[in-house]
Design brief:
N-(1-d-carboxylethyl)-l-norvaline Dehydrogenase, domain 2, 9 strands, 14% strand, 2 domains, alpha/beta, 3-stranded mixed beta sheet, 14 helices, Rossmann fold
């Protein structure tokens, strides 16, 4: 099996890396990462730099918060691009701008390294259960090489198209997720203020045409007032920004996306940016004069 370097051990990255270890791969992580100890206990190696990780790996995976962090890890002195070997494979599973994914792809190609953009959907639950949806941009041969590794982390794995196509698909995913959470939040706020039992309503709706994974999972979060982050509002707002920038570049008006992004801005300004994105309901309740916590 190929040696894996895994950079980025946050809410999503840590369980993803643990699942790669469970699948039998040799995994190297950055020793200064605060989660490195847990990975080492599970069998990973800790190395001192991103360059060292790249030098030791056949496949390097990044799972980082945003475009600047991915570019820093790739392009900085002592970074991945400096250490990676010809014939290796680079996979970015972060959610970043499609233009940046294409730039990174070309930089690696010049070193004789294939690159894939492979952002994921499914949140912390999907990362922990290895049931992520993985949307991939790049060439077929690189995708087939990565497929067994992807299967250790997800179960809905699709090669969308060429470099950047995975990130474009993820931007569209985040638009749909954001607007669906907004719809659930509005509906639950209306029902609660009208005196309807939310548990009973959710049960009924899950059996009809309004059924969705968001209604199921985030509807339950709203009822239980559980806003500990599976996916933070601040990170989802970043993704909505990527979508809005793509809309501008392609002359596509994204009215719903813009509205949800503005609501996320209000939540962040109110100190709720680190809460789960289902906490959009807090703003709806505030606007409805319900003043729930």
């Amino acid at each position: 099996m190929e040696n894996i370097g895994f950079i980025g051990l946050g809410i999503m990255g840590k369980p993803m890396a643990l699942n790669v270890l469970k699948a039998g791969y040799t995994v190297s992580v950055l020793e200064k990462n605060k989660a490195a100890g847990e990975l080492v206990e599970a069998g990973a190696r800790a190395l001192p730099s991103n360059k060292a990780i790249a030098e030791s790996a056949d496949i390097v995976i990044t799972m980082l918060p945003d475009t600047p962090q991915v570019k820093e890890v790739v392009f900085a002195p002592d970074g991945v691009l400096e250490g990676i070997r010809k014939g290796a494979l680079f996979i970015d599973m972060s959610t970043i701008a499609p233009a940046a994914a294409k730039e990174i792809y070309e930089a690696f190609r010049q070193k004789g390294v294939e690159a894939l953009d492979a952002p994921v959907s499914g949140g912390q639950v999907g990362a922990e259960s290895a049931s992520l949806s993985i949307m991939t941009g790049g060439n077929e041969a690189a995708f087939q090489r990565a497929l067994p590794l992807f299967q250790a982390m997800g179960n809905n794995i699709v090669l969308i198209g060429s470099a950047g196509a995975g990130q474009t698909t993820k931007a569209c995913n985040q638009m749909i997720v954001g607007m669906t959470i907004q719809a659930v939040a509005e509906a639950f706020t209306l029902a609660a203020k009208a005196g309807v039992n939310l548990e009973k309503m959710r049960e009924a709706l899950l059996g009809g045409f309004a059924q969705s994974r968001i209604l199921d999972l985030h509807g339950k979060r709203i009822i239980e007032r559980n806003f500990s982050p599976g996916f933070k509002i601040s990170l989802h707002r970043k993704d909505m920004g990527i979508a809005l920038q793509m809309g501008k570049e392609n002359a596509v008006p994204l009215y719903g996306t813009a509205q949800v992004a503005a609501h996320m801005d209000a939540l962040i300004a109110g100190g709720n940016g680190e809460k789960d994105h289902s906490a959009i309901v807090l703003l709806m309740e505030q606007l409805a004069g319900m003043n729930k916590g």
